Task: structure prediction
Amino acid sequence: MPYAIDETHDQNLMSWVESANDPKNDFPIQNLPWCQVFLDDEDQCVVTAVRIGNSLVLVDVLAYAGLLDEANSGEFSAVDACDEQPFEDRAKIRKQLSKLLSKDCSDLRDNAELRQHAIIELDEKDLVIPFFPGDYTDFYASLFHATNVGSMFRPDNPLLPNYKHIPIGYHGRASSIVQSGTSIKRPVGQQAPTEEGGSPGFGPCKLLDYEMEMGVIVGRGNELGEPISIENAEEHMLGMCILNDWSARDLQKWEYVPLGPFLAKNFASTVSPYIVTMEALAPFRCAAQERDAGDPQPLAYMESDANRKAGGIDIKVEVYLASAKMRDEGMEPVHLSTANFKDMYWTLAQMLTHHSVNGCNLQAGDLLGSGTISGPTREARGSMLELTWDGDPFANPPVPAPGTQRTPIVLPTGEERKFIADGDEVIMKAYCEREGYRRIGFGECRGIIEPARTL
Result:
């Protein structure tokens, strides 16, 4: 793996930005995720920043001041942060930022004029989407999720024959990827006929769902016709964010045969405000999920010792929900689930390599979604479709249940949910923890559902 553990990960490293030293803060000096912030000035410009504690450091300003050797052109931007830049150069920028923000460094700390221009207090409303994806592919990489969903509709054959041989994915819609906090209109579309041979219905989605995913942002592309090898795949990754792949299940059921998701997925996908870099994630790498003895091994182009030993990432992911009534009564969001990204059947490197093996040219800034992150227990299911379903294919013995057999989530107000209602807010969180290292987080990915637009 190209992303080494170095001095920037030292758990004892402290910053002169005091809020970063709070052990409960997910943005210590060991993290330094990228983001973009809207500056409400005469130019109304968007600039690149990193978050530390409760502050934002405007990297453009530091670059202009000549404090970043690898970005001293005076016009450093979020595009430059990833566009075809070798990961070695990104690692150097990380080290320079870490040094400038460390407790014992005075270059920025004691330069009041520069600090005034370079450091601003965090204001969530000024954060914008951390990157503007040119393209988007969503995968289906959790065996637990795929087995749960398959068991609802094909209990005798949950997984299709290709699942353990190939990372399944579909081409999503980049233009409808939105920043955390954006309200989501309930989608409208066709639903399956209520009886065989009947006409489809039409109207607002009745089975609206979320999908708890992580996304990886491509840092370097590849030329058309030149695939990315599994050995080099990690070098093409910039970092990760939280991704909520909103899903209209009733629209999906009617339209997905034979070409897969379309209107059920492309109305909106929400991403968190920060790109946590692959460099920051180095201490939290782990082995890829171990395959059962009877499972096929990946084909040679998706197999390497490095990927097998450290292709996974230990990221805990959590989902919360707050109804409009809960918010009106001042109630805290209710916890729905906790899962872990390390339980994915396919690794990020395998997804990226497979995506390019036919010569497809990925580009800097492209977003690859992991697919829903689910685990082996009901509490680790990453969508409402799974969470309220009463079956359990991983129990011993398995618990069968028709796909429609569901127990609703009961909220503190007494409201019940089998799927997402208008006014509901879905909040996703993700963080990494490991003994001997500081906890780092990804921020939050939020969205409130608004009623469908009347046609």
In short: The chain is about 15% helix and 25% strand. The longest strand covers residues 440-450.
